Amino acid sequence: MNDGPPSRPSRASRPVLIGAFVLGALVLIVAAVLASADGRLFARKDSVVMHFSGSIFGLQVGAPVVFRGVRLGSVTSIGLSYDAGQDRFSIPVVAELDPELIDQVGAGGTPRAGLRLETLVERGLRAQLQMQSLLTGQLYVDLDFRADRQASRLGARSGMIEIPTVTTAIQDIKNQVDGMDLRRMVDDLASIARSVRQTVGSPRIESTLAQVEQTAASLNRLAERLDRRSGPLLDAADRALGDTRRSMGDVSAAAARVGAAASGAEALLQPDAPLMRSLGRSADELARTAAALRETAEAAGPDSALQQKLEQTLDDLSRAARSLRALSDTLEQQPRSLLTGRPQELP
Fold first, then answer.
1. Which of 154, 179, 178 is nearest to 165 (CA)?
2. Are 160 and 45 in contact (CB under 8 A)?
3. Residue 285 phi, psi dihedral angles, 5° rounding
4. Which of 52, 120, 130, 302 is most buried, by the most CB atoms less than 10 A from its CB?
5. For the whole model, what pTM was predicted?
């Protein structure tokens, strides 16, 4: 039996063990990468370029590129380009997108191949910078359909698809502020402030305020007097209203009596009424009497005094007969004239 110390591995076997451990670690790392990539490590990706004209401070390589919250890729490079022809700078941002992440469904729900980015750009796909976090200030690229917005498009690089870009709301505000003449606006505000100060401190304003105060005091006194006199005035108005109502009642009663009298007069003055027949007979008798007297006057001689008196009497009778006949005709045509009087003849 060997009671000595345990045997140690030889120096020749140590590199083999170390290599085995390293190889196992590499296998685990590759497996983890493949698992995290979900089988899309070797999937086809499209390179796109987006030209931004404003500041992109906060956008870094590796920043996500999303479409309505779904990550389609990430930023791979950020550069700076100068166009000597137009004397302007632009910032080309290159990203890799996986178009296979967008499933296209055909008629009946049958799946189709992924959409082409060129088709989406033609339909209005635009890129815009958005804030990831207000604390860190990091940005990301947001893709969405913004065909109604003015887009910037400078041209694609070889082998890349260009996605037009639109400015953010903050950049729009900044552009509007940059276009304003702030110095002139400040000068105008200062001039307005001086004018207001001079106007407020002028004697005319003080006089106007004093007049307004006096007018307000006069109105208050007038309101107090009206308040004190409103009671008696209302009582007098109530009494006058009562008198008016009573007067209207009396007028209504008088009108009713007049109407009744008019109705009675109309009935009395009908053509077949006794009064009208009596007036007609009287007129006829007066006419016959006048005719008989005229015959008597002619028989008495032309120059006698009797004839002259008879002619005068005949004239009176004739006028009386005509007046009586006219009265009879008027009452027959307008019975109310007995109450209202004879209508005046137009000149």
1. 154
2. no
3. -65, -40
4. 52
5. 0.42
Which sign does the torsion angle of CA 75, 79, 80, 86 carry? negative
Residues in the chain: 347
Query: Rounded CA gap, 124 and 33, in Å?
Result: 35
Q: Which helix (H) or strand (E) holds 94?
A: strand 88-97
Burial classification of residue 206, based on how many CB atoms lie within 10 Å of its CB (0-12 exposed, 13-18 middle, 19 or more buried)? exposed
3-state percent breakdown (helix, strand, coil) of the chain, nearest 5: 55, 15, 30
Q: Please name the amino acid found at residue 194.
A: R
Contact 48, 95 (CB under 8 A): yes
Q: Quote the tokens at residue 321.
A: 């007969």
What is the rounded distance in angstroms from the CA atom of residue 228 to the CA atom of residue 303? 93
- Round to whole Å and give the CA distance between 92 and 79: 5
SS3 of 37-76:
CCCCCCCCCEEEEEEECCCCCCCCCCCEEEECCEEEEEEE
CB atoms within 10 A of CB 92: 18
- Tell me if 62 sits within 8 A of 75, measured CB to CB: yes
Question: CA 221 to CA 227: how far, in whole Å?
Answer: 10
Helices (H), the chain: 14-36, 117-122, 169-178, 182-201, 203-268, 274-300, 305-333, 337-340
